[in-house]
Amino acid sequence: MLPDIITPIYGNLCCKQRVWQHKSLTLGFGERVLHGNSKLIDNFWGEWEIRTYCNSWRVIKDGKVICGSNDIDDSIKELDAALGQIAFGRILSLTQEASGLDIRARFDTGIIVDFLTTVSEHDETVSIFCPRNVCVSFSPAEGWLIEKNELNET
Q: Structural domain of residue 104, as residue ranges?
C-alpha cells in the first residue's frame, strides 16, 4: 500500500519528462522549482518528481507500449525525444499492482506508466521526491520507505 504522504501529487500536471543515464525515467509534477545547477539539462525540478534508476519502465496508451526502457534500438537521446512527444497530462493515481512489486501511474489523458521491479535486492524500483525534502521510495527488499532528502541532486 502506498504511503498517504504522496496523495497530494494527484491532480498535478506533468511539467517535466526526461530519460537519463541507464535509461532511467524522471517525471516532474506541479510547480517548476528552479535549482540553479547549470550542469543539468533542465533548469528546474518538478515540485514532485517520480524517478527510476536502473529499473525498467513503460508508457502505455490504448493498450499499446508507446515507449519503454527496453526499447533496444533507441539511444538515450532518441528515447528522451520520444518521451518528450508524449502529453502526459495530470496524474490521477499511483497504485501498487497485484504482484506487489510494480507501481502504476495513471493520467487523465489515458496514459499509463508502469515502473517495473526488475531487481531482487535493495535498489529502488521508484522514488518519489516530495515537497519539503521528503523522499518516498519502494524497493522489493524493504517495501516503502519515507526519508528526509537533504539534497535533491538530479
A: 4-148
